[in-house]
Amino acid sequence: MHWQVPIFLSWVVSPIMAFIICSVLFLLIRTFILRSEHSFSRSFYTLPIFVGGMFWLIVSFIIQTGSKNDSFGQRSGEFSAIA
Fold first, then answer.
1. Fewest CB within a 10 Å sphere: which of 2, 19, 32, 54?
2. Closest Cα partner for 67 from 78, 56, 57?
3. How many CB atoms lie within 10 A of CB 72?
4. DSSP assignment of 24-78
5. Which secondary structure element, helix H or strand E, spans residue 9, and what is its range?
6. Whole-model pTM?
7. Where are the domains of the chain?
8. What angle do CA 18, 11, 62 make, to 5 degrees?
9. pLDDT per residue over 30-57, tens digit each?
């Protein structure tokens, strides 16, 4: 029973935190980019920021979790040091 508490909390806290972060991000984008008079120009400038952020997030996750292929096993430390 003692080990079940962290698992239960992770199943409850994680979706709530994801909801809060996504809601704040959506409200900021809707308020300052989509409902602006110059929405096209603002979206033109912010799109590379969002794409770069997602690229960084995905690459960081892949580097942190490591490769399932053993050929990269020896060099995983070098890749994580670069990131």
1. 2
2. 78
3. 12
4. HHHHHHIIIIITSTTHHHHHHHHHHHHHHHHHHHHHHHHHHH--SSGGGTTTHHH
5. helix 4-29
6. 0.64
7. 1-35, 39-83
8. 60
9. 999 999 999 999 999 999 999 999 999 9
